[in-house]
Structures are given as structure tokens and as C-alpha cells.
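User: Some background: our group keeps a shared notebook of sequences we're curious about, and every so often someone picks one and asks for a predicted structure to add to the entry. Today it's my turn. The entry only has the sequence so far, pasted here. Could you supply the structure so I can complete it?
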Amino acid sequence: MCAHIQRVVMVGMLCAALLLAGCGGDGLLDIAGQVTYDGKPIENGTIDFVSIDGQSPTAGCLIEGGRYSLRVTPGKKHVKIQGYREVSRGRVIEFDPDSPVVAKTEPFMPEKYNTASQLTFDADRSTSTADFDLPP
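Assistant: Of course. Here's the predicted structure to add to the notebook entry:
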């Protein structure tokens, strides 16, 4: 009898875990999209979704090859986008010949898309795509 009760409890716990996993128990929404500037994909950059009401955390990620994917809380967001371009290459530790060589970048996007952004997005369950085609 004890083994039967253990099985019932285990099955109940498994069902509860599957329900929570299937329902997106954390309340976050998957959002992905493409970001272009002047008709070209942003190859290297960042995108941040900042809660307009200040009640939920900011979600941000890298833009790579013009694409991004992240999870956000539902609600209206300010969107801040930054793109970076390679200006040179150099060693991480300049005078160490064994130090790896990396790209040195600088931001190139106008402030109207990042520090002074007026871009918005309303994150809800009806959409999972947010593309941004930004003119210069």
C-alpha cells in the first residue's frame, strides 16, 4: 500500500511540474526580431526593452547579424538600440604578445534610438516578433 501512495504522489508531482513548464510559469514572453539601420542589418549591437511604468525589470540582449531573441515581461516598453562598428583590432593587453587580438568597436547609432529613444513596443501574448527598420 505504501508503494502505491508513493506512485500516486510522484505522478501528481510530475503532472504539476509539466503544467508549470507548459504554461510558462515565469510569466515571460519570448520576443525575437530583426534590426536594420539605413536598410542594413546591425551586425553587432544591443537591444533593451525598458518598462515604461518602471514596475518590471529591463530585458536586454545582443544583436548579432541583425537578429535578436530574448524574454520580456508583458507590458509597454521603451526600446533602446545601439549598434557598434569595428574601428580597429588590437591585443586585450597591449604589450603582451600572447594576449588575444580582439575587435575594438565604437557606437554608431544616433541618440534617437538609444539614450533619447522614443521607440516603443507593447509586449503581449498576441505577438512574438518585434522588427525595427531604422532610418538614419
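Suggested note for the entry: Helices lie at 2-22. The chain has one domain: 26-134.
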